[in-house]
């Protein structure tokens, strides 16, 4: 029970950090990550919050992942729900400041990227599955047999284009995050001796299978018990 509590705590803390980093990038107001351009566009079109746009798009992507055969964990579901919820709490209560001047904005954006990287480390390292958007990238890579770089770039270009058309905040920050966020995250992971490919994820179907096995053993035990 203690081990499970630590795992869940690390997962939630990681998702909070990722949401905090996302809000830092948004409040920098010099352009945000590709998916957040999309979320902002959807929010402006529909009148919902950016956090809700994050959650609702995550649900749709979650369904697409399942259709494409991508394995998802409980962490994937919590990722879909909690990141958007945490973003709303932070933004609606003005818990993250907004600065004027390009230099403070740039520093804020870079801090956001670093915080997101730390968030990824905490929530992915628990091994309960990746987020719906990461799962989409993996699923399309498997289906198309194309390099992951091409798939990620195609997804990013698509969501940025749609988000910009809908009114999302596209700027130099978007370019910085597209080209440098991955390298910054890689540096953070290296310093923490963390390798994503070595994480053994536990998926929802694994727990379902265990429950079925326990149920079958229980039923067999009842049948063998003398009446």
TrEMBL record:
Transmembrane domains' residue ranges: 49-68, 80-100, 106-128
InterPro entries documented for this protein: YczE/YyaS-like
Keywords of this entry: Membrane, Transmembrane, Transmembrane helix
KW Ribonucleoprotein (keyword) present: no
A Pfam family it matches: DUF6198
PANTHER family attached to this UniProt entry: INTEGRAL MEMBRANE PROTEIN, INTEGRAL MEMBRANE PROTEIN-RELATED
Protein name in the entry: YitT family protein
Organism: Wansuia hejianensis
